[in-house]
Design brief:
This protein has 327 residues and is α/β, with parallel strands linked by helices. The chain is built from 13 helices and twelve strands. The strands form two sheets. The chain has a six-stranded parallel β-sheet, sandwiched between helices. A six-stranded mixed β-sheet has the order 7-6-8-9-10-12, with helices on both faces. The radius of gyration is 25 Å and the shape is elongated.
Length: 327
């Protein structure tokens, strides 16, 4: 196995120079850099991934930055991405940001230093656009929209249509007092879903009733308690995601309500948890697997010089189960 000294000897430079070229820790003139990279390729110096990334400007790595791995939507999306990266001969590096803007920035910088072929970004921070502008590698944004000229593409479901489908289904189920637990309105996806709900309410001349909620189980418990006090006549609830729908369901049971007899309930995402509860959760499905695969293919197509579609929207589907019933 070749060593760093073998590389240095072949390139006619010192081992320290080889190290500086590999790590990018100092400027090395272009001719020495060329000789070092050529020697790395010639000797097959380990680690091969580093040599390949330097020489071919490709690490065969796709970075994924997820805000919340406790949310099964992001876990299922990351699983779909990993499966497609492996199938395509790439590897996935997952960074968990905990919705922390600085952690997202640090993750982007790290992936840029790794010469990642691209980043799949799931973010709740629109301020991240400045880091996207600076990073120098392709970024595909999933489930949100940011405003950056450097964004390669974005991938999202038809959130507006999802809001329309959820509200329209509860009306078809005979609900007259519908409350929308909407996601945080700072997110483009939540705004689009809420607008769909609004338009259905206006069309059917129904009162607009809503409460804002973070996409978490704990927050769902709190908001559900508040909802029952504020809207005691509620007979239909739209939850901002399946996790919140499950927390709402627990609160309703605690207060003696029967679902769907007393209150009908619909979620959003169609994660696996919704099928595990009894009664099974009616929901609006995002095509999570297809969205994950498309995100990977966009980056690989860009790396291979193929044309890439900037806007990638996927249709949503009503999944009728047991927490709603047509009347």
């Amino acid at each position: 196995m070749a060593s760093i000294r073998d590389v240095a000897r072949l390139a006619g430079v010192s081992p320290a120079t080889v190290s500086r070229v590999m790590n990018g820790t100092a400027n090395v003139d272009a001719e020495k850099t060329r000789k070092v990279l050529h020697a790395i390729e010639e000797t097959g110096f380990k680690p091969n991934e580093v040599a390949r990334a330097l020489y071919k400007k490709s690490s065969k790595i796709i970075g994924v930055i997820a805000p919340d791995i406790d949310n099964p939507y992001f876990t299922e999306l990351a699983k779909a991405i990993e499966g497609e990266t492996y199938k395509q001969g790439y590897r996935m590096t997952l960074c968990y940001s905990e919705n922390n803007l600085e952690k997202e920035r640090e993750s982007i910088r790290m992936l840029s230093r790794m010469n990642a072929d691209g980043i799949i970004l799931m973010t709740n921070n629109e301020e991240i656009e400045e880091e996207v502008e600076r990073c120098g590698i392709p970024v595909v944004v999933v489930d949100r929209r940011i405003h950056s000229d450097k964004e390669l593409a974005y991938v999202e479901a038809e959130h507006y249509e999802g809001g329309r489908i959820a509200a329209g289904h509860l009306i078809q189920c005979g609900c007259r007092n519908i409350v929308n637990i909407c996601g945080p309105q700072k997110y483009s996806s939540a705004r689009d879903r809420y607008q769909g709900y609004l338009d259905v309410c206006r069309h059917y001349q129904r009162e607009v009733q809503c409460m804002e909620c973070e996409y978490s189980f704990e927050e769902g418990l709190i908001v559900a308690e508040q909802l029952l006090k504020k809207y005691p006549g509620v007979d239909g609830i739209i939850a901002c995601n399946d996790v919140v729908a499950i927390s709402v369901y627990k609160v309703l049971l605690r207060h003696g309500y029967k679902i769907p007899e007393d209150i009908q309930l619909i979620g959003f995402d169609n994660v696996a948890l919704g099928r595990l509860m009894t009664p099974e959760l009616t929901t609006v499905e995002q095509p999570i697997v297809n969205m994950g695969k498309t995100s990977v293919r966009l980056i690989i197509d860009h790396a291979k010089g193929r044309p890439v579609q900037h806007e990638n929207r996927f249709p949503v589907t009503l999944i009728r189960r047991e927490t709603t019933v047509l009347k």
